[in-house]
Amino acid sequence: MLTGISPQALWLAALLGVMLDAWLGEPRRWHPLVGFGKFANGVEAWLNQDLATPARTAMARGMWAWLLLLAPLTLAALALTFLPGWLGVVWQALALYMALGARSLRDHVMPIGRALAAGDLGHARALTARIVSRDTDDAAPEALARAAIESTLENGNDAIFGALFWFAVAGAPGVVLFRLANTLDAMWGYRTPQFLYFGRPAARIDDVLNWIPARLTALSYALLGNTRDALQCWRAQAPAWSSPNAGPVMAAGAGSLGVLLGGPARYDGEWEARPPLGCGAVPSGAHIAAAWHLVSRALWLWLVLGGALAMFAASLAEVSPDLL
User: Which parts pass through the membrane (predicted)?
Assistant: First the structure.
């Protein structure tokens, strides 16, 4: 069994991990991902010194850096899955808790909606700048709302559902691998001279790991809102988006919410033409709250379905023990 524990124990660990995230949020001190990020910066500085390195060599070094960083930690997570009894369940729950970011996502986006509702545009701009890389210094209210909603929908997959999917597939080793791979993509997956080739393996691996979770996330968004518009936007708009995984997630989410997203955005003073997403209303602060509630409902849907599957697996094991 890839997870190291029974499906029922794994679901209990998932529930505990989600509850820990809801109660505690991200650790304010000694977060493992912060330490991992510092170590990754050191590895990158060691292996990515010469920007004149041929593309194939730079990609090979990027792949080597990825393996050097992830293989030992994933193997350590695998070894800990075989802790006996409740220790194994607690470890699984802690691993998922460290990978989840639902509470953090809520705490970052909901204040933007409240600031916009209060007409405090300066505060809304400062809060939005914390979660997106686009320019917000002179952004209009609808542009701030659009950025916050897009971030909410996309990070619903990256910070919640992708982690849950790989936790269900492979327990703690799966979620550790996913979260660290996603972190390296966030650090190295840029089309800049520094990372164009060195960061390409990290970006492509993250695309592969997110392919199924992103589509399950998009389907969840569609089922919990305006299903017809969500599916239509997903089918028509997602192929035009540059990211193969963000496109379905944001298109389906925007259609489900009945809001217009995408369109031009300014990064470092340069305007970037982005395809449209969704349909319906111009985004506002109220849509930010609606986007978070959509993500929250999808989280509960996943937990309920996971519990049902765990119960089914238990009943199947009673009938045919050799199948599990």
Answer: 64-87, 159-181, 299-317
